[in-house]
Amino acid sequence: MNGRSPEPLVRNTGRRNEATILNAALQAFGTSGFNGASMRDVAKGAGTSLSNLYNYFPSKSKLLAAVLRHANGELQRRVAHAVDDAGNDAPSRLREAVRAHVGFVVDHQVATLVATNEVRYLDPADRTELVSHRDATQATFEHIVDQGAADGVFCTPYPGDAARAILGAVAAIASWYRQDGPLSRGQLAEQYARYALALLEGPLPR
Amino acid sequence: MNGRSPEPLVRNTGRRNEATILNAALQAFGTSGFNGASMRDVAKGAGTSLSNLYNYFPSKSKLLAAVLRHANGELQRRVAHAVDDAGNDAPSRLREAVRAHVGFVVDHQVATLVATNEVRYLDPADRTELVSHRDATQATFEHIVDQGAADGVFCTPYPGDAARAILGAVAAIASWYRQDGPLSRGQLAEQYARYALALLEGPLPR
DNA sequence: TGTGTACATGAATGGCCGTTCTCCTGAGCC
DNA sequence: GGCTCAGGAGAACGGCCATTCATGTACACA
């Protein structure tokens, strides 16, 4: 049951070909990097003409910004829902947040890689906006860590950087995970949830 | 005592300007990415002429390969020495390995970023070589984890991916650490060594 | 003194890139 | 029918890029 067809990141936007173009751009930027991929590549991938791209996005850089906004939004949505559905104690909340994050990384490996590697190519204004959105997601994790530290369930002497460490490990999954490898999506999420709790010196199941 | 002048990654190679060129290339690739940086940028950074670069390296791609070989070599050397100088038990060995790795990331942030983000732009042969070198460094960590698991000191039920998780967290430091921030190099290394031991569910000091 | 070799340079060359321009089509609406 | 407007296409333009070429200097060494 491992062979899910790779769900596109962007589904529907109201404009006829926008989603197709965004997904093609994601693929192109993921394969060759922002500077390595040309607008011609994106057009080819989207099955449209080079000039038509400019009917949707005013520049290559704004196209990247749009792709990253969709990726970030989807991640933020998944993590937020997971935390909302979890219990009130920090360990369960952290567990569900990590599981959701790992799920996103596995479902959208390319988007994760592009989001971490290509942000720097945005113009300053877009970069600032995107970084602040990313920081908001990170803050979700930091608040949970703070809560657990305050409650005394996370005993690490270094709670300040723990969220960053956890998120770094999770994001790195995107650079080695293979869908046809030995680990299922669920097993991987389970493992990393435990890694996170252990790193925080929190309560471990079993 | 935090303001160390950034030691260049490459020090001396026997050819007159090779080190200068390699360090300039590292800087250029780090700032703009492999495809975003031009050979003209590298030449300017090295204070030499565009065409002279080709007296040292046959192509831009081989130049990147040389940069990455130096970065990887330095990391591997530091980790190997640290492990050699450590005790024989897995926890001390892991602790020293992590401390050395964090030290490298802090001392050579740009090299770490380039090494993780730009490997994919090498031609296949160089990429294969570089990846196998990187895997060798990773294997050092994996062996320590295996040793600790066999000895019963690392109790994590998932020792198989733990090294990857730790290395992912450590590499991510390069994308947020600031020399003038609140954490010294040594404190950071200490923190991450503890994170690593905790993640493995190993013995914790104090 | 002559010869090879390492290092260095400025000027091409051919190609691709982002972007723009001009034009075309078809659907919705008066 | 006539108008608008979103969506679409091909051809061009100016610019930058990796690489090569022709040429020059200076030093080692026979």
Q: Report helical residue fraction of chain A.
A: 55-70%
Beta-strand percent range of chain A: under 5%
Corresponding CATH architecture of the domain at 65-199 in chain A: Orthogonal Bundle
Please provide the count of β strands of chain A: 0
What profile does the largest beta sheet of chain A have?
Answer: none
Number of helical runs of chain A? 9
Q: According to CATH, what is the topology of the domain at 65-199 in chain A? A: Tetracycline Repressor, domain 2
CATH class of the domain at 65-199 in chain A: Mainly Alpha
| First-residue to last-residue Cα separation of chain A | 27 Å
Mean pLDDT of chain A: 96
Structural class of chain A: mainly alpha
Overall 3D shape of chain A: elongated
Radius of gyration of chain A, rounded?
18 Å
Element-by-element helix/strand order of chain A? HHHHHHHHH
**Low-confidence segments of chain A:** none
* Name of the CATH homologous superfamily of the domain at 65-199 in chain A: Tetracycline Repressor, domain 2
Main interface: chain pair and counts: A-B, 38 and 38 residues
Oligomer: homodimer
Question: How would you characterize this protein structure?
Answer:
The structure is a homodimer of 206-residue chains. Chain A has 206 residues and is mostly helical. Chain A has a domain at 65-199: Tetracycline Repressor, domain 2. Helices cover 65% and strands 0% of the residues of chain A. Chain A is built from nine helices and no strands. Chain A has helices at residues 18-32, 39-46, 50-53, 60-85, 90-107, 109-117, 124-151, 162-172, 185-199. The longest helix of chain A has 28 residues, at 124-151. Chain A starts with 17 loop residues before the first helix and ends in a 7-residue tail after the last helix. Chains A and B meet through helix 8 and helix 9 of A and helix 8 and helix 9 of B. Chain A binds a DNA duplex (30 and 30 nucleotides) through helix 3. Chains A, B: Pfam families: TetR_C_24, TetR_N. Chains A, B: It comes from Prauserella alba. Chains A, B: Residues 15-75 form the HTH tetR-type domain.
